[in-house]
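2024-03-11 09:14:02 INFO receiving multi-entity request
2024-03-11 09:14:02 INFO entity count = two
2024-03-11 09:14:03 INFO echoing inputs for audit
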Amino acid sequence: MKIKILISFFIIMSSFLAPLALSPKVEAVSGDCYFKKGDPVESSSGCGEDGLGDYGTNDVLTGRSTSGKGWAIDPDKVNTKAKFIDFIIDRYHGGDHNKIGASYLIQKMRGEKRLASLPSGSEVQDWKNRVNASDVTIKFYQKRTVGATTWYDNDKKNIFLGAHPDVSRRVIEIYQRGDLRAVIEMECGNMTAQDDPLSSPWDVDPNTTINTPTVSPGEPVIWTHTYTNKGPGSMTTGGTYKINTSPSGTSSGGSANYGAHEKGWKVTITRSYVAKASDLGKNLCQSITIDPNSSTNSSSETSAQKCARVVGDYNLTPGVDLTVSGVVDPGSLTTVTGTVEKDGSSNTPSQWELSKVIIAPGKPVPAAGDSTSTPQAYFENGGNNWTSQGVGTATFTQQLTEVIKLNNVEIDELPVGTRICWALSIKPPNNDFGGWRHSTPVCVTIGKKPKLQITGGDARIRGDAVTSTSLINSGTPKQPTLFGSWVEFGVFSQGKNSGLASGAGTRNGSIQPDQSQWSKLTFSNVIPNPLEDGQDAYKYGNFGAGLPSAPEISEYFGSQGSPIGSSINLSDPGLAAGVYRSTGSELQVTGGAGSINKTLVIISTGTVKITGNINYASTGLTSINSIPQVVIIASNIEIDGGVTNIDSWLIASGSINTCLGIPTTNPALHSGVCGNPLTINGPVATNKLYLYRTAGSNPGGAGDPAERFNLRPDAYLWAYNYGLKTTQPITSSVIELPPRF
Amino acid sequence: MVKMKKQHILKKRTIVVIVILLAAILAASGYILYKAYQESSSKTSAPLTADEKTSEILNDDSISDKTAQAELKKLADNESDSSKKATYLLGLATSYTNSDNYTAALDFAKSAEVSNQNALSAAAVADAYAGSGNYQEAAKYYEQAAQRSEKSASRSERSPYNDYLNLKEDMESRIK
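2024-03-11 09:21:47 INFO inference complete, emitting structure
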């Protein structure tokens, strides 16, 4: 037991003291071989040579002849660091002798001790990195006195270091940072006893991170700078770091020296800065520069700069305004205005883009929204046609900013029902979202605004006279021209007048947008009210007394007339001139397309439906007595959509509807129905007039009417003559006499 | 009970012996360490030899050739021992040869020859002549360097003798 303890103790002590024993700097000539035993090294002990060895045979690298002539390392070919590396690598891939010799040089320069292995691929790369280090310099073909050197033992296939008499040789001297590390004889490739290793390369990596890409005034920006020796070797020199700031003065920088450290050494430096209001819009940036960069690059290296943009807390809302809305005629003109409304404060520039989107009939209009999609991708979705109308970048400092205004934009000639929309997109809309914010598209629908024309007389309206107008780019040269409904003579209305021209003011369109310029015979009986929707409608009269109601023409005919059923055929040869009465709820008038050459007065207490044209004879008229005339008096009159001409008086106590079958409530009218123009030649009086024809208002004929009311002189002549024939007393003159008491 | 007591005493004595032995060994170890330290200290503080000084100067690439040459010149000038002086002069000759200043190299090599004739000094003179293109003189001095070296039995042996003879032959081949 005691003996065991003592033996153990001495073993421990001897191993403890072993490193203290002075080891020789070089191995003896007869010392152990350098490489471990293994292919192609045949032995790892007992290396040695008798005498000084033979030329070539015992040289570490081959190339010299056995008579001692020539070079193992040709000074004419190996005279730069790159060529030296290539040469050694070439020998490393050579036969056993050169492979072992080159391996020795490689491993020795890497600092591998005795019993090293032949170098692996990565070890060869490590050697290349070490030699390539910027602080390693190589001098070629230097004269030097050398003594102890290496041998190649061709029996053991190994290398050993041994004594040698001093001799003057040509050598390669390898220095690192000025210190001689290795000497290789060029004649033989032997490395002398000067065989200190080259340091492993090292690389100090600078890095900068930041806590946020954007910051608001009052919030901190924190930069974390690090520099790390990524190795694989320890640093052979210290360096300097410097923190770079931009713009200067917006955050603190600094610099300092540091020493050399081992692999993995890492330093972290933190800098912080609280953004100020005066920094709005600035990019606060920092980076770190370390110098030197690495053992292979003596220059400095700077980390990627990291910046925080100082932004305000804001929210932008894009929008579009048009000067027209709803249904518009092709060729109509509008102004498109893109605006951005801002909440909060912002100095951040944003991109904007105005889009025009054409949407086929029946397809949905894209909704507003925030999206990463570009305006084109967003609005083209669903097969819409998209074009950009303008792009730009702006910093929105105002609460409302007009970014774009397009004047006199002409509505395309597209199929009815097509929608043309404009939308404004903006990026970024706020601090939180970096994508696009797309406004609600503002659209107009291609359609028609059918027109009315009244010729030969006035329009007397006991309500409002409100008709639509179209501003069309028309004429030669093209210019904005207003088209609308018009009356040849006067327009009298109990209520306001908006859009219905008098004096044929818009007969060929008007380049004057102001209604007063094309309403010279307009009289409306309302008090101007500037708070209402526009003053144009109210500035044509206020003549005081109301308009009288239309005369009760049916009373003129008293109770006379032949009774008829639910229809009357105007072309019936048996139908004599005269008055006909219907007491049913409906009376259908047909057969008037022929030439009517008589007077027919049709009085109905119900609804008269006119299903065909009514045409007067235009020949065979020999006197005033032969003027034909049709007078239709009813509660309501409805005209079939196929009817294009009616030569008749139309007197309705209820309503006149120009498109039979279209209800007067929720008419659901569209361009596909009642597309024929209708002309009515004769006086028209009604309580309500439903103008449901959709003809006209086409490109090239913007002013063409859907309905035309024409009061011709034949009506006056017939009326005069008919009055003469009556046996009823009429007032021919009125004389006002003084009162008698 | 008595047996147990005896065993206890024996154990105690064993521990005491071990402790004494440990103390002795520690004392001896401390002494050895102290001597080793003294030896290494005396070794590191020993003055450098002329060879070591020359190597130290020539092996420091961080100093310029001119500075190195000035230092060696100063050492040579201040050295009275001819052998040491020759070492510094040889270092100077080597430095000037490596700087391609063969005139200066020749001067210092010849001075080394005067101070201490040996194979290296003759080789240094030969190197200077060879560098300046005087192959005839170079051959002559390489021959001298060979003759001052230990003669080899075999012409293929990697000896200084053979090396200098090879250089001589190389110079002679250039003359032709």
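2024-03-11 09:21:48 INFO post-check: Chain B has a mean pLDDT of 86.
2024-03-11 09:21:48 INFO post-check: The two ends of chain B are 108 Å apart (CA to CA).
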